[in-house]
Every structure is written in C-alpha cells, then in structure tokens.
C-alpha cells in the first residue's frame, strides 16, 4: 500500500506510522528522517537543505520533494510506503501526484488522524522531558513520574520544552490548519481520505487504523 499519514501535532503520527509500517511491511518515510539522512550523507539535496536550515529558513518545497522522490524510488519502497510529514502543503501534494503518475502508480489511502484541539494542547503542553536524557518522557496527567519534577529512570530534572508550551502549541496548530489541513480536501476530491479518531490507547488507534486501511484496500 502507498499511504500518506496526516494529522495535527500531538496526534501520534510518528508512533502510529512506525506500527502501521511494520504491520503492512512497508517503509516508514518521515520528513525528519529524510533531512537527517541526506544531511549526514552529504548529498546535494542535503547540502541545500542544511543551508536553508542553518539560516533559520524553511526548506523549499522542491528540495523536500526531491528527497522524497529519491527515497520512494529505493528498492524497499517498490511495493509501497507510508509517508509521514510529507506532503506538508497542497503544492507538495500536487507534486507527489505528478511524481507517482509518472511512475504509473498512485496512492491507496490518506489516513487522517483526528484529535480535538484541546486534547492536542493537553497532550503536548503536559509533556515533561528529562534534562539528562531526552528519551525519558513523562506527562503531568497521562504518565506521571513518581516524584514531581524528577525522572523515574535516572533522577534527572524534568522540564517543559519551549516548543511544548501552550502558546507555542496553539501557533503550531494554526500553521497546521493553514498549511497542511488543506491537503485533506485535495485528497478528498480523489476519494482517498480515511478519517479515524486518534483518541485512546496506542494499540487501539493502530487497530482502528489497520481496519480502516484494510476496508479501503478492499473497496478500491
């Protein structure tokens, strides 16, 4: 299957993408991984991306599209892929349509993870990260440390990242609504959008997503 995963910040896209890609035996292609791989390997596209990022600017669509096309052309993506974080806007969605059409293939589904805005804010603004190891993540409501402000794993101080503050989260949501959400209408016009609730436990959301994708695959 060839799938695009969309949803607001805090919808759990990265987590779901990893599980879904494993269940469907297709590669999980995320924009962040594309950038890191190209920059670390010193590719021409990576050098271009780094120059924009170092200047504090957004990486232009054509550079992101070039990286995505290169990755989708690799052998492990021959029978499908799951795109996470790309396309980011309608311009990128149209470029993806053209790229796939040129290869004689098409998307099978666009999985839209739906989460109420207040829940997104609660999920992200409640996160607390360990200063010693950023992989140690807690939540003031959903995954409380035994001692407030102290990491259960190593005893380090827990803090709230600037990106996770409520005002920043609401700005990120605004960017999502303005830039990324319009791609849902773009794909709805093609009959590709499958919307599911991203509320509940991780495995419940994965099961819901798999069921919706299998239904979509059977219908098409």
Automatic annotation (TrEMBL):
It catalyses: AMP + ATP = 2 ADP. Pathway: Purine metabolism; AMP biosynthesis via salvage pathway; AMP from ADP: step 1/1. ATP binds at residues 10-15, 127, 137-138, 200. Signal peptide: none annotated. Its EC number is 2.7.4.3. Pfam families: ADK, ADK_lid. One of its GO terms (biological process) is AMP salvage. PROSITE patterns: ADENYLATE_KINASE. GO terms for cellular component: cytoplasm. Residues 30-59 are annotated as: NMP. InterPro entries: Adenyl_kin_sub, Adenylat/UMP-CMP_kin, Adenylat_kinase_CS, Adenylate_kinase_lid-dom, P-loop_NTPase. It is found in: Cytoplasm. AMP binds at residues 31, 36, 57-59, 85-88, 92, 161, 172. Residues 127-163 form the Adenylate kinase active site lid domain. It is an enzyme of class 2 (transferase). Keywords: ATP-binding, Cytoplasm, Kinase, Nucleotide biosynthesis, Nucleotide-binding, Transferase. Belongs to the adenylate kinase family. NCBIfam families: adk, PRK00279.1-2, PRK00279.1-3, PRK14527.1. HAMAP family: Adenylate_kinase_Adk. Catalyzes the reversible transfer of the terminal phosphate group between ATP and AMP. Plays an important role in cellular energy homeostasis and in adenine nucleotide metabolism. This is Adenylate kinase. It comes from Streptomyces koyangensis. The gene is adk.
């Amino acid at each position: 299957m060839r799938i695009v995963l969309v949803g607001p910040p805090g919808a759990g896209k990265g987590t779901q993408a990893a599980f879904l890609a494993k269940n469907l035996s297709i590669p999980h292609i995320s924009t962040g991984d594309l950038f890191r791989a190209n920059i670390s390997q010193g590719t021409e596209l990576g050098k271009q991306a780094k120059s924009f990022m170092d200047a504090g600017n957004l990486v232009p669509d054509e550079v992101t599209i070039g990286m995505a096309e290169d990755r989708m052309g690799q052998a492990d993506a021959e029978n499908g892929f799951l795109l996470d974080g790309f396309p980011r806007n309608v311009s990128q969605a149209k470029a993806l349509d053209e790229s796939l059409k040129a290869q004689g293939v098409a998307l099978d589904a666009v999985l839209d993870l739906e989460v109420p805005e207040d829940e997104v804010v609660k999920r992200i603004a409640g996160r607390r990260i360990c200063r010693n190891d950023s992989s140690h993540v807690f939540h003031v409501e959903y995954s409380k440390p035994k001692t407030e402000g102290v990491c259960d794993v190593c005893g380090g101080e827990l803090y709230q990242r600037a990106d996770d503050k409520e005002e920043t989260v609401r700005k990120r949501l605004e960017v999502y609504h303005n830039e990324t959400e319009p791609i849902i209408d773009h794909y709805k016009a093609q009959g590709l959008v499958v919307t599911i609730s991203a509320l509940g436990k991780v495995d419940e959301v994965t099961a819901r997503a798999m069921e919706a994708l299998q239904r979509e695959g059977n219908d098409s």
